[in-house]
Amino acid sequence: MHTLKHYYWIEAPSSSSSDSSSSSSSPSQLKGLDGPRPDREEIVAVRSYMLLFVKQLVMMGGGASKDDELQSILNYLTTVQEDENLHDVLQVRIGFVRRLNTRRQAPNNSVTMYCTT
């Protein structure tokens, strides 16, 4: 999530989205500008693959790594102000919530049998 925020941004971060350690976010201080920058479509593609990887970590993982990744997504959503940089991450987060809600609505058979007896 750190890499998405600081290097693979679609819209240049404003000073309110940057870390408190940086004094301002003038173009010369933005990360990801030290070489040729990919065009928008390439950045969107890289972001989608990175988010797919995070999604797989959360869905397959358990314990601390799952909680850490979910917390990093929430941190990203609360610190980034630019709409263009939020859309894809917000879609992933909404997907997690929907998946959680469908699991709650369709309990497995052993829980249903236990509750009815």
Offer a quick outline of the entry.
This protein is an all-alpha fold and 117 residues long. Helix content is 62%, strand content 0%.
Q: How would you describe this structure to a colleague?
A:
It is a single chain. This protein has helices spanning 2-6, 40-60, 64-79, 83-105, 109-116. The chain is an all-alpha fold and 117 residues long. Mean pLDDT is 79; it is low at 20-25 and 109-117.
Outline the secondary-structure elements.
Layout: H1 2-6, H2 40-60, H3 64-79, H4 83-105, H5 109-116
Helix pairs in contact: 2-3, 2-4, 3-4
Key structural traits:
disordered C terminus, mainly alpha
Number of helices: 5
Q: Which range does the strand content fall in? A: under 5%
Average pLDDT, rounded to a whole number, is 79
Would you tell me the structural class of the helices and strands?
mainly alpha
Query: How many strands?
Result: 0
